Amino acid sequence: MAIFSNPENALKRADELISVGQEQDALQVLHDLITSRSFRSWQKPHEQIMFRYVELCVDLRRGRFARDGLIQYRNSCQQVNVTSFEEVTKHFLRLATEKAEQARSQEEALDVDDLEADKKPEDLQLSTIVSGDKEKDRSDREQATIWFKFLWETYRTVLEILRNNSKLQALLLRIKRSSSVSSIKEQQLCETIRNHLENLDKYRDQRDRPDFTEPETLQIYLDTRFEQLKVATELGIWQEAFRSVEDIYGLMCMVKRTPKSSLLPVYYSKLTEIFSISSTHLYHAYAWFKLFSLQKNFNKNLNQMDLQLIASSVVLAALSVPPFGQAHGESHLERNLRMANLIGFNLEPEFEGRDMLSRESLLSELVSRGVLSCATQEVKDLYHLLEHEFHPLDLGSKIKPLLDQISKLGEVQLSQYVPSLEKLATLRLLQQVSKMYQTIRIQYLAQLVPFFDFSAVEKISFDAVENKFVAMKVDHVKGVVIFGNLGTESDGLRDPLVIFAETMNKVRAMLFPAPSKASKLDDIVPNLGETVEKEHTRLLARKSIIENRKEEQEHQQLQKEREEELSRLTLLKLTEEAEQKRLATELEERKRQRILREMEERELSLEQNRSTMERAMRDKRKEGQEREKRLRKLVKTMDYLERAKREEAVPLIEAAYQQRLIEEEREFHERQQQREVELSREHHESVMEKNRLTRMSDNK
């Protein structure tokens, strides 16, 4: 492992390796530097090193290397410069997201069921027989799957590193929001965040543990849960959405506080969607009722039209609850209590052995709270027709136009309640007809129900008979419907007779008004006015005393809260001062350790240089001595060789000299003979020339 005293040298070395295509070696160089002891104290060049390090981790898909590097960098800079760690983490997530998006752009039809699942046997078998374009499509899909798996691993790694740290809460919230929006694996992501909260509650003595008594910390965790709830409902993961609701309620129970009024409408609106999908009409209606109360009390921008539509939704949701089928027993009570706590947001519930939520109590509460009076006229008429009036023969014809008008009202989707209301109207019609008839023809009964054909009415009546809402049976042979009695005959006629008696009493009161009783009361109680006045004065005084006591208690409670807040702030200030002192001490200690380490490294470097120079001089002297020794030996050897050569050359030189004398003498004799021949030839030629010239002179 190469040791770099200067971090910038390691970065340069990594760049050189990257330029020649050795990314793995460059990553190893940076990893060795980051995990070394010299990297524990934060410096400015470390940020650039981490940027290059996470880039290599993403390019090579080395999630474990990235995790080790980020943990080391978090430990080195969370006390000094948290912003640098945030920048590195966001850069890491941005690179992984870009790679995944590029892979998805190449394969738009990506559909991964589980990002952590291995390949199925049939997929492996299919991969061996495809070819051509299918092979390319399969490779693109596999590449995209690999990058999305790496992206999910990246988010999970970052969440594990940032979890349960008060100094990294803001970054954790942003990453949780971005990961939820990415919808990589919403269920596993929510489960991971849920485990973080459980571990936080388990290890209470953890350093840098988030303090839920601080409003900022609580708001961060609440925002995260509400974001999970929104994303889960948008993606249609209703089970996970309900678990997010339970997480919000559990978090509030942990700190004994209620969320802000601005978050509660979101909470109850999502609850209405969840209960609507799960077909739990009773809880859906209660959630609508709570949402109506919040909007009416806290939403100042709510106009009359919106209030009317919300009230209509509440009433229709309550009417859509079946009038039968509510189970009883311990399990039902526990479930009812659980839902009542979630809907009512009661942080300290007390179990009571009774039905806490029911259709009858909800309807009576809607009337007493004035919700029904805020609804539209069509909804009011529908409520009175279904709950109070008795019209067995024309109930269907009166309700049908009302339902048609309700389905067209406003922007709120009131039409979702029409099927349930049609079923309820059919049940009410059967109930009222059973009180008037013992036998009725099927054809006539089908004409009374304009919503369904008789087969659907028969299915609805089956549930009603099973839950003892109405007693009837269908005789298809005779073509009639036979109604029975759930009680005595007088019980069956009780409701119409009671209504008739109340109506007659009203008529009699209008025709014969009751005489004034004031004079009789004065005769019986002569000092009634004075007594009433005294009692009224006493009640006013008692009310004033009660109000004063309440104000005093509130003042004491407020004073107590102020003292607790002051003590908490004082303790927090002392804790911060102690933390600052500890950080300053640690900083001084780190500086001292760094100076000592630098001095040791400098001394070690000088010692290494000194030993290197001494070793070089010693080697040089030794080499000179050896060279001189070799030279002396060579001189002596050359002297011996030269002397031996000369001794051996003496007889050879003499022999060569004698041989040369012989050869020169032979050559001399040969040259003499040749010269004599040439001179003889020249003499002969000269004589002949002389004779020729003589003849020429004689001829003149």
TrEMBL record:
Keyword terms, alphabetized: Coiled coil, Cytoplasm, Initiation factor, Protein biosynthesis, RNA-binding
GO terms of biological process kind: formation of cytoplasmic translation initiation complex; translation reinitiation
Subcellular location: Cytoplasm
MF term (GO), any: mRNA binding
One Pfam entry name: PCI
Annotated GO CC locations: eukaryotic translation initiation factor 3 complex, eIF3e; eukaryotic translation initiation factor 3 complex, eIF3m; multi-eIF complex
SMART domains: PINT
Region (Disordered): 667-700
Domain PCI: start-end pairs: 307-488
Keyword RNA-binding annotated: yes
Keyword Cytoplasm: yes
Protein name: PCI domain-containing protein
Organism annotation: Eutrema salsugineum
